[in-house]
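Exercise 3.2. Students should predict the tertiary structure of the chain below and write it as structure tokens, then compare their answer with the key that follows.

Predict this chain's 3D structure.
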Amino acid sequence: MSAESGVPTFRGPDGLWRSFRPEDLANPEAFARDPATVWEWYRWRRRRMSSAQPNPGHVALVSIERRAPRFTVITQNVDGLHARAGTRSLIELHGNIWRDRCCAEPPHVVHHEPGEQEPAAVEPVPLCRCGARLRPDVVWFGEGLDPDHLEGAIEIASTADVLLVVGTSSVVYPAAALPAIARRAGATTIEINPDATPLSGEMDIVLRGRSGEVLPQLDALAVRCS
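Answer key:
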């Protein structure tokens, strides 16, 4: 969904930064070896995301949530656009790029507003007030998801009546396992995507199109039928 708001996709044509692939930088080993370069990349990503705004797809989900008795957005995106659009029940499986997390225990989290300017003399590797390094509060390659977030997502999928799978490549697990969990529990699964994915053949309904076009149409249909 974020690509329609101008956010570069992780693996798309804008995925390369300098001579690095995202996989080269978004991992604990890279941060331990060269935290300054990792931070340089994340500051670049934040600048690229700072002007992005929620698109009609985000807005349509907020509209649906306001009328649905039970509705939760489970997202792999880290840009915070769902929350900015007004989504209230939200699980950010892969974290949020606008938060920093202390590397010490217990972790301390710092939140930044999109577009917020860092001090001109910002350190290449920011430090927490306790003196430990800060890192982006996102899930890196080789790391597990927050157990509470994952358990919450599985619980929602296993009790859902309908599961919308919107704009995802459906190749990143464990998130890609949620549709199968929902179907086994009796939910109707609907894929919204302009392209086929590995899970397209397992969906009950496939709607080909961009999320910013299809979701508003679904929302309008729901209004007419209510």
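Discussion points: The chain is about 35% helix and 15% strand. The mean pLDDT is 89.
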